[in-house]
Amino acid sequence: MSDNPVDAVQNPSPEEPAKSVMDEERNFPRGLAIRLFAYLVAGHVLAGFLYLLFEAGAGGR
Predict the structure, then answer these.
(1) Count of alpha carbons within 13 Å of 3, Cβ hemisphere only?
(2) C-alpha 24 chain-centroid distance
(3) C-alpha 27 chain-centroid distance
(4) What is the pLDDT of residue 49?
(5) Which among 7, 51, 53, 60 has the fewest CB atoms less than 10 Å away?
(6) How far is CA 54 from CA 8, 28, 29, 58, in A?
(7) Are 18 and 12 in contact (CB under 8 A)?
């Protein structure tokens, strides 16, 4: 066995395709999906609050 770390890596045979550690097209990260949902909800709540502030300000004429 040589001291070269490149030699220690086993290369797959040319017939079989290399498998990725995480198939990002099929497995959407759960934490990212939860964060995206939370940001969408928070963004809509903030937009609704600002809308109510403008409506309340316009009604006080």
Answers:
(1) 0
(2) 10
(3) 10
(4) 98
(5) 60
(6) 66, 38, 38, 6
(7) yes
- Supply 48's token pair: 């609704």
How far is Cα 55 from Cα 61, in angstroms, rounded to an integer?
Answer: 11
Q: What's the one-letter identity of residue 36? A: L
Measure the CA–CA gap between 61 and 56, rounded to whole angstroms.
10
Q: How far apart are CA 47 and CA 39, in angstroms?
A: 12
pLDDT at 2: 61
pLDDT in tens, the chain (61 residues): 567 666 556 655 667 666 666 666 678 899 999 999 999 999 999 999 999 999 999 986 5
